[in-house]
Amino acid sequence: MVGQNDSIGFYDALPRITAFGALSDPDTYVPLPDGWVIGTADIVGSTGHIAAGRYKTVNMIGAAVISAQINANGDQGFPYVFGGDGASFAVDPDRASRSGQVLGQVKRWAADEFGIELRAAQVPVRDIRAAGHELSLARYQAASGVDYAMFSGGGLSWSERRMKQGAYGVEAAAPGVVPDLTGLSCRWSNVRASNGTILSVVVEPAPDASPVAFARTARQIVAVADQLQRRGHPVPPRGAGLRWPPPGLALEAHASRGRRSLALRKLRLLRETLFAFFFFKTGIRAGEFDPVHYAATVSDNADYRKFDDGLKMTLDCDADTHRQIQQILVQARSEGILQFGLFAQDEAMITCFVPSITRDDHIHLIDGASGGYTRAAAQIKAAV
Question: Which of 6, 35, 305, 309 could form a disulfide with 93 if both were Cys (CB 3.0 to 4.6 A apart)?
Answer without folding.
Answer: 35
